[in-house]
């Protein structure tokens, strides 16, 4: 129970010690206890950026999930397997896990059961990034009904962060602000700094009043000696860094653009060193936006190509939309190159329909901001 409490509180230090005690008593503990232990261990591994280990724990736990009454432990297990796969950019595998979480939950408890609403968060996130905005909005509205009982922080990041983003790109900035305010209240009440950071990051994206430290003071989150990296602290800091970069880019001065590029490049380098493909891809697109501001479109366009090609391979449309007009303009330029046979032979190929889909999604979901929303 202590492990579950720590997991829900977004604390990972000491979790493996608790899990080891359960595993040592594998022959005497009930299936639900062993399934819960595996979920705790998977959560810990995901937030140490040990994604394969997270999935191995779920493989070990399969017989215990199957023998546990109710869908909840299996739903968490599938979601954690999916989250680990998603972070490794194994997108099809991740979607299979998220759908397996959502479908058993629905069969067991009806369309609005607690388990269904939990599972809807991660499936909604996946579908959003693939450009299925309508379905994603429906699913995230489902998970939003849980409020402060919305599961682990990763689920809440999506429910309140991505959920608010969808409202904003629909043009309903009042609903977006309300969703973010609710998330901020829950983060404060439950003492969840990572959720607070996501809320502030999203507020920055939509020009809402945000509490961002600038320049960001990076905490000592890297691995030292026998202490493993704490990904919770790392990701919390990264959200503030990401927001600080966006604030610099919004200033539209050459000095701020260069500083933003330096910060973004450092962010990408750390994520690559930590073997975090999804995080590095997203930060890489922000780096391209900063490169465009600092050194112009020609250099940024060339830097965008391998990232856009990766998004195309995986079908991740919204990643390219969500970095704003500067990146969308570069995507349009790439499409023109393809249409007029001006694609350099040394560049990786990208199918024109994918670039058109990105531009269509961006056009259909671009809010018209006349003044800053403060």
Helix and strand arrangement:
Layout (H helix, E strand, L loop, with lengths): L1 H7 L6 H10 L6 H16 L4 H16 L5 H16 L3 H19 L4 H16 L3 H12 L8 H17 L3 H18 L2 H13 L25 H21 L2 H20 L3 H19 L1 H18 L2 H5 L3 H15 L12 H13 L10
Helix pairs in contact: 2-3, 3-4, 3-5, 4-5, 5-6, 5-7, 6-7, 7-8, 7-9, 8-9, 9-10, 9-11, 10-11, 11-12, 12-13, 12-14, 13-14, 14-15, 15-17, 17-18
Task: Give an overview in words.
With 374 residues, the protein is mainly α. Among the domains are: 232-295, no CATH class; 305-365. Helices cover 72% and strands 0% of the residues. It contains 18 helices and no strands. It has helices at 2-8, 15-24, 31-46, 51-66, 72-87, 91-109, 114-129, 133-144, 153-169, 173-190, 193-205, 231-251, 254-273, 277-295, 297-314, 317-321, 325-339, 352-364. α10 runs antiparallel to α11. The longest helix is centred in the middle third of the chain and has 21 residues, at 231-251. The radius of gyration is 21 Å and the shape is globular.
